[in-house]
Specification:
Blueprint: H1 8-22, E1 27-33, E2 40-46, E3 51-58, E4 64-67, E5 80-81, H2 87-91, E6 96-98, E7 114-121, E8 126-140, E9 148-158, E10 171-176, H3 185-189, E11 198-202, E12 211-215, E13 221-223, E14 227-229, E15 235-238, E16 252-254, E17 258-261, E18 264-265, H4 270-273, E19 275-276, E20 282-283, E21 285-287, E22 294-297, H5 298-311, E23 318-319, E24 330-332, E25 338-339, E26 342-343, E27 348-351, E28 358-361, H6 363-366, E29 367-369, E30 374-377, E31 379-382, E32 390-392, H7 394-397, E33 400-405, E34 410-416
Parallel strand pairs: 3-10, 4-9, 21-32, 22-31
Antiparallel strand pairs: 1-2, 1-12, 2-3, 2-8, 4-10, 5-8, 6-7, 7-8, 8-9, 11-12, 11-33, 13-14, 15-34, 16-21, 17-18, 17-27, 19-20, 22-32, 23-24, 24-30, 25-26, 27-28, 29-30, 33-34
One 2-acetamido-2-deoxy-beta-D-glucopyranose binds next to loops.
């Protein structure tokens, strides 16, 4: 056998190139908006034999979890529950360990000598303390990005039937994108050197064309029809961990300094804008993919409503909200013109750490057409005494790119991609109409 001597400098160059090329990868995870529930749904393949599974996108979720209630529905020859005190248990920061107590026979989700973590259904704000930690084959990613085959992806298997409540038809679990948990999707995928702990979320407003979650350092491209990097020119603010909100520490919080409507500050109780560390982390602002419309503390809602109405031209008339509607502020669409960023209404600025750093919400994200003649302010006022003062929901996030940079501990906002003549579904030019 001969030996082959590779010059050291060449080797270094090769390694550097390799690292450079590898770390530039982006994984695309398509996200569909379910028409009847308005839930954001993604799909991965799991198990042996492989089957496609649909999962609710749960931005602040700690793991990927699937429903294992029915003992015959989880079939896989490669399912491995995490044995007590194993590395898998410590990586998932399990809080308990034990035998199967809830079923007469062992099954996926109920095994002996296995550790568990908290399971969560964000649609009903319900938690169970017995989510079995396990490993199985996972294939994730789609065109035009990379596809990853993960032979031992750590996830959780839940046997409590209440955990599937309100999930859209055919959806059997949730995909957690939390920032603290080491087994959340972005944190676990980052064990692959091609990715970084950074992802971009671009939810489509349409139920017929898919949006996308980009995983990896970027750039994140969309077509208009020219290929553009939509992750440039974002406004960033600090990502806050709410350590006091026990089960919510994976949720994405950030600090708002004020809300501006048509350039004027809306009077808000500043105390409620911050997380209250003396009272279990209530207050503050978080982002949720599990609610369709942003929820505002009722006093915030009233102030925003008043300022918004005041800033509208006098010929725009208030009308009664439709019966049973969750919206309280509706207008006749008659005198509201339409622009490339939706109905021509006052812009709502979410002001971040300084007055010049803000996320602008245009009519396309602040209004919702409820009938041919009526459109409503797409925010919901709610008693948030024991919760976050503001929960940013789906309608306000759609057709915006949000970047979650976990090592940098920051969140970036693009504002409406309509300003760049593109949208969240134009990430793949091979499926464009
Ligand atoms: C949960 O499993 C039990 C027992 O297998 C079954 O009777 C029940 O219908 C299941 N519930 C759901 C929601 O699948
Ligand atoms: C369990 O799941 C299997 C396969 O999905 C299905 O055929 C069966 O009816 C389910 N049983 C119950 C009790 O829900
Ligand atoms: C395993 O972990 C449990 C807590 O999860 C601990 O009480 C126990 O002592 C550990 N056992 C061993 C053998 O390390
Ligand atoms: C599982 O644990 C239970 C209770 O600790 C025990 O009765 C049962 O025999 C165990 N099953 C197996 C297959 O080891
Ligand atoms: C602001 O909210 C806090 C917390 O609910 C409350 O204690 C305080 O009285 C409020 N301040 C004003 C001026 O309303
Ligand atoms: C409504 O009022 C605004 C501002 O006063 C004006 O620009 C607009 O043309 C009016 N619209 C109609 C349909 O009269």
């Amino acid at each position: 056998m001969g030996t082959f001597k590779f010059p050291l400098s060449m080797l270094l160059l090769f390694l550097l190139l390799n690292i450079f090329l590898c770390s530039a990868e982006v994984l695309y995870l398509p996200v569909t908006k379910d028409a009847s529930t308005m839930q954001y749904i993604t799909e991965v393949s799991q198990r042996t034999p492989l089957i496609p599974i649909k999962l609710l996108v749960h931005l602040g979720g700690r793991s990927l979890w699937v429903d294992c209630n029915n003992s015959t529905s989880y079939k896989s020859s490669t399912y491995k529950p995490a044995v007590c005190n194993s590395t898998q248990c410590s990586i998932s920061r399990s809080h308990g360990c034990g035998d199967c107590k809830f079923r007469p026979q062992l099954q996926p989700g109920c095994n002996n000598n296995t550790c568990y973590i908290w399971g969560e259904n964000p649609l009903i704000n319900t938690y169970i303390d017995h989510a079995e930690v396990a490993e199985d084959v996972l294939i994730i990613g789609s065109t035009p990005g990379v596809r990853v085959n993960w032979p031992r992806f750590i996830f959780t298997c839940l046997i409590d039937p209440s955990m599937v409540r309100l999930l859209a038809d055919g959806v059997t679990g949730a995909a957690g994108f939390g920032h603290e948990s080491l087994i959340s999707i972005p944190n676990q995928l980052a064990l692959d050197p091609r990715f970084t702990r950074k992802f971009g979320m671009c939810l489509s407003s349409s139920t017929s064309s898919r949006g996308v979650i980009f995983i990896g350092s970027g750039p994140y491209y969309a077509y208009n029809p020219k290929k553009i990097d939509i992750s440039k020119d974002l406004v960033y603010t600090k990502l806050i961990t709410n350590k006091r909100a026990f089960l919510l520490s994976d949720e994405y919080y950030f600090q708002i300094s004020s809300i501006r409507i048509a350039g004027q500050d809306v009077p808000l109780n500043k105390t409620l804008l911050s997380i209250n560390n003396k009272q279990n982390g209530i207050g503050g602002t978080k982002i949720s993919t599990a609610i369709p419309f942003t929820i505002l503390h009722s006093t915030f809602y009233d102030a925003v409503r008043t300022a918004f109405i005041k800033a509208l031209p006098k010929n725009v008339t208030l009308v009664e909200p439709p019966p049973m509607s969750q919206f309280r502020t509706c207008f006749s669409s008659e005198n509201i013109k339409s622009t490339n960023v939706g109905p021509d209404v006052p812009a709502i600025d979410i002001v971040l750490y300084k007055t010049s750093a803000f996320w602008r919400i245009y009519g396309t994200n602040s209004m919702v057409q409820v009938s041919k003649e009526v459109m409503c302010l797409a925010f919901v006022g709610q008693d948030q005494t024991w919760g976050s003062s503001i929960v940013i929901g789906g309608h306000q996030l759609e057709e915006n790119l949000l970047v979650f940079d976990l090592p940098g501990k920051k969140i970036g906002f693009s504002s409406s991609l309509k300003l760049q003549q593109t949208s969240c579904s134009k990430y793949d030019d091979t499926i464009m109409d």
